[in-house]
């Protein structure tokens, strides 16, 4: 009994417990402030820098020799390799090829560029802003020359002035009419392109025949833009997946 009374008497009172809890809270708060202060003082990790000789893949993609790095130029979208546009006279020309040629000219004979990574795209490619040894930012220059548009979906508006200047001066693709590259990849075509390819209006699905059988590709799939329709070989356009499957074609896996 005496031991129990002593134990009760020795227990901290409510005021003491409150003081103890308050002291613990203050201590933890101070520790948190120290951690935040240290964390904010730490510099942000530097963007990856990639340098070397490059080869042009298309108007907005380069590969760095000696590495596995494949770089997508940040904030811009150039016409695809097989894409055609109409010039001022309404004549079709390979704007995708001209865009790639202009990029090669910007990079020059040395082929050397310096790139700073901004992001990674869904294909795992490095997305970067790149410049030549003469400090020419090739992303901006491609847009200024009219051989690429600003990729609004992924851009921060960095090249909107260059695009406005190209449009006003009717440079590159702006000399005539074209389908934005992102829409072209989804199957949109100029009237002149549809006529040349035999594509019916509103029918953008490609029925291809290969060693894998009869496969149809819908806009946005990986091999869509590269797939060509050869009607002599039995290939054809479809207006819907249901129509393609009814004709004996199966969907491409990617």
Which short descriptors sum up this protein?
254 residues; alpha+beta; OB fold (Dihydrolipoamide Acetyltransferase, E2P); five-stranded mixed barrel; four-stranded mixed β-sheet; 33% helix; globular; disordered N terminus
Q: How would you explain this protein's 3D organization?
A:
This protein is an alpha+beta fold and 254 residues long. The chain has three domains: 2-41; 49-182, OB fold (Dihydrolipoamide Acetyltransferase, E2P) (Beta Barrel), CATH 2.40.50.90; 198-251, no CATH class. 33% of the residues lie in helices and 22% in strands. The protein contains eight helices and 13 strands. Strand 1 and strand 2 form a beta hairpin. It starts with a helix and ends with a strand.
Radius of gyration: 30 Å
Give the strand order of the largest sheet, numbering strands 1, 2, ... along the chain.
Answer: 1-2-3-8-7
CATH topology of the largest domain: OB fold (Dihydrolipoamide Acetyltransferase, E2P)
> H/E order of the elements?
HHEEEEEEHEEHEHHHEEEHE
CATH class of the largest domain: Mainly Beta
Number of alpha- plus pi-helical segments: 8
Q: What fraction strand?
A: 15-25%
Structural class, judged by helices and strands? alpha+beta
Query: In whole angstroms, how far apart are the ends?
Result: 81 Å
What is the number of beta strands? Answer: 13
What best-fitting shape do the alpha-carbon axes yield? globular
The biggest beta sheet reads: 5 strands, mixed, barrel
Helix content: 25-40%
Q: Tell me which oligomeric state these chains represent.
A: single chain
What's the architecture of the largest domain, going by CATH?
Beta Barrel
């Amino acid at each position: 009994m005496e031991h129990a009374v002593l134990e009760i008497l020795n227990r901290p009172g409510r005021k003491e417990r409150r003081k103890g809890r308050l002291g613990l809270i203050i201590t933890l708060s101070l520790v948190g402030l120290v951690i935040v202060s240290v964390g904010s003082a730490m510099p942000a990790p530097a963007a990856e820098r990639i340098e070397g000789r490059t080869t042009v893949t298309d108007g907005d993609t380069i590969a760095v020799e000696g590495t596995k790095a494949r770089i997508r130029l940040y904030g811009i979208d150039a016409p695809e390799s097989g894409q055609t546009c109409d010039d001022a006279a309404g004549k079709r020309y390979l704007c995708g090829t001209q865009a790639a040629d202009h990029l090669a000219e910007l990079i020059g004979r040395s082929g050397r560029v310096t790139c700073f990574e901004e992001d990674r795209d869904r294909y795992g490619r490095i997305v970067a802003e790149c410049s030549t040894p003469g400090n020419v930012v090739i992303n901006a220059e491609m847009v200024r020359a009219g051989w690429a548009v600003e990729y609004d979906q992924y851009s921060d508006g960095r090249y909107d002035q260059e695009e406005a200047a190209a449009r006003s001066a009717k440079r590159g693709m702006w000399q005539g009419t074209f389908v934005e590259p992102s829409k072209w990849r989804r199957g949109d075509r100029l009237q002149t392109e549809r006529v040349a390819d035999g594509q019916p209006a509103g029918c953008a699905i490609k029925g291809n025949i290969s060693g894998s059988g009869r496969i149809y590709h819908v806009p946005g799939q990986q091999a869509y833009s590269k797939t060509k329709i050869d009607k002599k070989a039995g290939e054809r356009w479809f207006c819907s997946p249901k129509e393609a499957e009814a004709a004996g074609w199966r969907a491409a896996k990617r």
